[in-house]
Write a structure and sequence with these properties.
The protein has about 500 residues and is of the alpha/beta class. The chain contains 18 helices and 19 strands. Helix 10 runs parallel beside helix 12. The mean pLDDT is about 90.
């Protein structure tokens, strides 16, 4: 029997993601008629599980095999006593033999075919079996009308493979897309379910591999790297004779005094993450009255000391950060670059070259852009970055020869030579001022304690840690203030 799993996988398991080309090969390798029957069964089983008291259902079917999966589900739901109707969209297009057989079987079972404008207003749920992984362009014509009709219907929706209108490989929605309460990924999950608009459009995610062999190549990983988190935690535990010098040092460079709060948030986060000593570096830096443990350093002294620690630069740096960045790129053994320092990189090919050269010297570097900052670094537009976040993050990693955290819904972690990761924790509560400063500082604190750990893993752990803090709040409950975020992250245990 097919095995249904809720995503992300429990216990911090990392989930391999496949692209559409790999899924097409899996479809071809399977006995297609049996595969459609198994897929429809999986859809029907999930619908009954999440809406056990439903009595009426509508299934909107496209012309492809995704529509065939929906027709099998409609037939099976009808056989279980529901009143089911189905809507044919794109009927004039070419259909596979299996799709035609599924339609004939549904009709023989008494499933009623209706037009789009006759959708049952009293349906308890709708099944979106329009497009699946087959979207290439923005929906138009009859497909667009169907997506609009599905979204206008008040009942919750179940997406088959993907919400129609969402691109499987990227999470981009080039036009209208169905907003689902649940989405059932068949054969294997795709990156688009976890980044970009995917998490918003897909709702709660489920997976059924349909008993197919999963020998395909993986393009990315999703999930919380909890195993690596636990391993790091074991290294972080101080021995009985441990002391502040055992846990590394972090220097947070402050630039503009009017944005001193950003540097303080980063410094607090580094200290809360477990760094032994954390310094605020700036000409006019004041002590932090709420965190007196933070020490002060003049920039020149910090620059001399950071050869044996982690520098965090750009948080509240202002436009003047460019003059300091070149020296920190040369001196810092480990470096986290955020905010205004990213804008300085975008404006200077010399700084970009200096960053890339750090890789040749065996020095660790991480940049943490949001989509606009990434667009500046790639000399493109934010829309282009968001249209393919995996591609943008990987391009940045190769160009800068460093680890990249492309922030946003489903943050992407990319490092040259490593399989990209997509963080599956967190939600819009992190979309508030200062949360990026906290992430940069927290990562700096982890790097200080584990200088030998893979930077790629540490970046993924920092993203997961912050996201799981947000997950303690209900989605839609408002922002989590950055200063509160630090406290919640501190309470979390691996």
């Amino acid at each position: 029997m097919p095995q249904l799993q809720q995503l992300p996988l429990p216990d911090g398991q990392v989930l391999p993601l496949l692209n559409t080309a790999a899924l097409r090969r899996l479809e071809q390798d399977a006995a297609s008629g049996q595969l459609m029957e198994r897929a429809g069964l999986a859809v029907a089983r999930l619908a009954k599980a999440v809406w056990p008291h439903a009595q009426r259902a509508s299934v909107v079917c496209g012309p492809g095999n995704n529509g065939g999966d929906g027709l099998v589900a409609a037939r099976l739901l009808q056989a279980q006593g529901l009143t089911v109707q189905w809507v044919a969209v794109g009927r004039g297009r070419r259909q596979s033999n299996e799709r035609q057989q599924a339609e004939a079987a549904a009709a023989a079972a008494g499933v009623r075919a209706v037009s789009l404008d006759a959708l049952d207003p009293d349906a308890d749920f709708l099944v979106d079996a329009l497009l699946g992984i087959g979207l290439n362009l923005a929906p138009a014509g009859e497909l667009l009308a169907a997506i609009d009709a599905i979204n206008r219907h008040p009942a919750p929706k179940l997406g088959v493979d993907l919400p129609s209108g969402l691109q499987a490989d990227t999470g981009h929605t080039p036009g209208a897309a169905v907003r689902c309460a649940h989405t059932l990924s068949l054969l294997g999950p795709t990156p688009g379910l976890f980044t970009g608009q995917g998490r918003q459009q897909a709702g709660r995610l489920w997976l059924d591999r349909l008993d197919c062999q999963q020998g395909e190549s993986v393009v990315a990983l999703a999930g919380s790297p909890r195993l690596a988190w636990r391993q790091l935690s074991a290294r972080r535990r101080w021995p009985h004779s441990g002391h502040k010098g055992s846990a590394g040092r972090v220097w947070v460079l402050q630039g503009a005094t009017e944005m001193a709060g950003a540097a303080r948030l980063a410094a607090r986060a580094a200290l809360a993450a477990g760094a032994g000593r954390v310094y605020l570096a700036g000409d006019a830096i004041d002590s932090d009255p709420l965190w007196p443990e933070l020490m002060r350093r003049q920039p020149a002294q910090a620059l001399a000391e950071v050869v044996d620690g982690v520098g965090v630069v750009g948080c509240g740096g202002g436009s003047g950060i460019a003059s300091d960045l070149s020296s920190w790129l040369v001196n810092a053994a480990q470096l986290v670059i955020d905010a205004d320092a990213l804008n300085a990189l975008a404006g200077s090919s010399g700084l970009v070259h200096a960053l890339a050269e750090r890789h040749l010297r065996g020095l660790r570097s991480v940049i943490t852009p949001h989509p606009l900052e990434a667009a500046r670094l790639l000399d493109t537009t934010t829309n282009d970055v968001q249209a393919d976040r995996l591609k943008a993050a990987s391009a940045l990693a190769e160009r800068m020869r460093c680890t990249v955290i492309l922030k946003g819904s489903g943050s992407v972690i990319a490092t040259p030579g490593a399989l990209p990761r997509i963080n599956s924790s967190g939600h819009a509560a992190l979309g508030t001022a200062g949360s990026g400063d906290v992430l940069a500082g927290w990562l700096g604190g982890l790097m200080a304690q584990a200088p030998e750990a893979p930077t790629h893993d540490l970046a993924a752990i920092a993203c997961a840690w912050q996201g799981e803090a947000a997950d303690r709040l209900p989605l839609g409950g408002g922002p989590l203030r950055a200063s509160e975020l630090i406290s919640v992250m501190t309470e979390l245990q691996p």
